[in-house]
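1st attempt posting a full record on here, be nice pls
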Amino acid sequence: MNRLKEICEFNEREYRDGLFIEPDERTALLWERIDDVITTYEPRVVVKAGIGRGEIIKRMVEAHEKIVLVVVEPSLELIKKFIEDNKSDDRIRKIRYINGSLNRFPVDYYGADLIISIDNLNIMESAPVIDEFKRALEFEAHLFIAGVVLDDEDIEGTYDEYMKTLLPLHNDYYLHEDLKTLLSLKEFAFIKGKAEYVDLNLNKQHDYISSVYKINEEESREVMASSEEVFRNLYHFDGENIKLPYFTGLFMRKKIKTNAPV
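the predicted structure (as tokens):
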């Protein structure tokens, strides 16, 4: 199975279950940040990378009637499912859907005033995806990114290594300062944002993943056993639950400076 197909299937499951992408308990936090960005900067064309659970999309079209909302989703089946689930809502019909991959972002150069990416980067190749976001954004337009990051003291990426034993699609979790650095190198200026802790039940996560993928249980237990002290000290592990830093950040695509003619 190729990776794009796996991502499509992952997105379809997450639309239903929502453990990794836009879980219900983060909706209020995400909506507060996104609503503030749209109200403050008044973007005309807003592109959301992925349908997610659909709740953020519905809130955007309800609260901000003037925006042109475009949703880029790798799974055609998920687009059809979302439209069918909301067929009685006239506002959903106004959304423009594009079936396509995030690392080959099917949006024209300078086509977007705001791109919203939530919980995507840990299963995608971050650098090419961000390059595509940059290409599709107007100069001095904005990129809103949200996702789990590592604790600032987890320099060795302990939690990241643990996730790689569980979830085949997992790519990387960044330290949030490293994520900001990556975006700076991609010509994005950091506007505002912060990391806040969210709760996660590791047993629930393990059971959810093992219902879909074959987990290397021995390797997973070994990583957990060798890293338990780090989990307890940095992620407040109590034997079952941990607290993960969750970063929401707003960035602006830098305008290219040209030398004035002599």
